[in-house]
Amino acid sequence: MGYHVIDPETVEPTPDRPCVQRALGDAAGLENVALNLYEVEPGEQIPLAYHYHDDQEEVFYVESGDLHVETPEGEQVVPEDNVLVVEPDSPQRAFVPEDAEETVRTLVLGAPSVDDVHAYEPES
From which residue to which does the signal peptide run (predicted)? Predict the structure, then answer.
């Protein structure tokens, strides 16, 4: 049996990302679930770029601010205290617009924890 209490502030941010990413799942040694806490400033996006997954489902819980998500159907806004669910094969790019007035903090869960990401190139 194993239990972990993690203060997200003690987890060093992942280097070379377009926003602050704290890999909480890695810190806990999780193997089947990816769990990340993102702090996204205006003008930044959540890694990765516009992309989709073959098998991974993602859940975004927006703790503070308004998270914007680009999809092939148009832009969606996920307000504070709301959840966005992204099914496999659903292209998305999560970001905070440059003219936003606050940082967005969101907890993202992805399962299974697999490297099945693909860049999505919208048709011009």
Answer: none
Give the Cα-Cα-Cα angle 59, 61, 66 (nearest 5 degrees): 120
Fold of 8-119: Jelly Rolls (2.60.120)
What 3-state DSSP class applies to 58?
Answer: strand
End-to-end CA distance of the chain: 51
- 33-68 exposure pattern, b = at least 16 Cβ within 10 A, e = fewer: ebbbbbbbeeebbbbbebebbeebebebbbeebbbb
Do 33 and 7 form a contact (C-beta atoms < 8 A)?
no
What are the structural domain ranges in the chain?
A: 8-119
pLDDT in tens, 55-78: 999 999 999 999 999 999 999 999
> What's the pLDDT tens digit per position in 70-119?
999 999 999 999 999 999 999 999 999 999 999 999 999 999 999 999 99
